[in-house]
Amino acid sequence: MARRAAALGVGLVVLILLVLGAKGCLDARKNRSLEDYAGNVTQVVDETNSLSKAFYGRLDDPKDLGVPDFVSEIESDRSAMDGFLSRVEKLSTPGDMKSAQSTLLLVYQLRASAMNKIADNMSTALGNEGKEKAIRLIAGQMEVLSAADVLYNQVTRHQIDYTIANNGANAPDMPKSTFVPDSSWVDVGTVGSALGSVNGATADANVSGVHGTQLESATIGGTTLDASVSNTIPAGTDAAVDVAVLNQGDSEESDVGVTISVDGGSPITGSISTLGIGESGTATIQLTPVPKGEVTLDVTVEPVPGEKVTENNEASFTVNFG
């Protein structure tokens, strides 16, 4: 009986060791897959950061590049970002990294989509016909790239770092990835100025001339709003705001954007199709839903490409809708 008990004890110990050994092997394999995933993501991110330096370095200083060569370089940048998206899509993703992979994929979908739209509009932005609209679209895609930066830096990389640490794996902290180096790149004027310095760009794409707009007035139902007092609008008045804009530059402007927000809410947009030199134009923006009681209307004329002074492009009005 003693021998049997001893044999049983030895067998139990061997079984426990086998289970622990198998679990250790599984844990080690799992950790290696997590570490490999983090390493692959780091490689993509590092290459993305290098692409950012090349892309914005070229925008900031195109040197002697003419329009065809400049556009060709942007096309190459587009292809590189598409390549990064393809690599992210094909990553071997451990189960614990599914959530991180989902946000990483969204980051690169946003980046690739933005770079594609930038490349698609670059030739137009460097030409004449439709130039202003193309520049505005490119500036808008810079905002998309910036949003992708926030998603990666504030969510994705922390998800990966947490999963690595939570499983006891060993990998360096994920690098940051700020593709848009400066918030000024989301500004239409900054983009227009940069593209205007490309050799062979149309003369009016260059910002050597004076470009400028000014918010002249905002009117509701015949009542011109005064920024220094509370303005009362009688009940039943059509809640449409007529925004008058003056072109005080020496170039004709087109697609001049105007926005109005009510109490800091989402902007309601309008535009003036063309604005000749020294001319005034009006954008009519319908407030929907109709505000009730006292509200603050923030009225903004969006800067045109090359516009340097924007202090006179906006005003806030206190309006009491009766």
Provide structural commentary.
- 48% of the residues lie in helices and 20% in strands.
- The chain folds into 2 domains: 2-205; 213-321, Immunoglobulin-like (Sandwich).
- By secondary structure, the protein is an alpha+beta fold.
- The radius of gyration is 29 Å and the shape is flat.
- The strands form 2 sheets. Strands 3-9-8-5-6 form a 5-stranded mixed beta sheet, with no helix packed on it.
Oligomer type: single chain
In helices, the fraction of residues equals 40-55%
Average of pLDDT? 88
- What is the count of β-strands? 9
- Strand order, largest beta sheet: 3-9-8-5-6
Written as H for each helix and E for each strand, in order along the chain, the element string is HHHHHEEEEEEEEE
Structural class: alpha+beta
Distance between the termini: 99 Å
Largest sheet: 5 strands, mixed
Beta-strand content bin: 15-25%
What is the count of DSSP helices, taking H or I runs of 4+ residues?
A: 5
| Count of the domains | 2
Radius of gyration: 29 Å
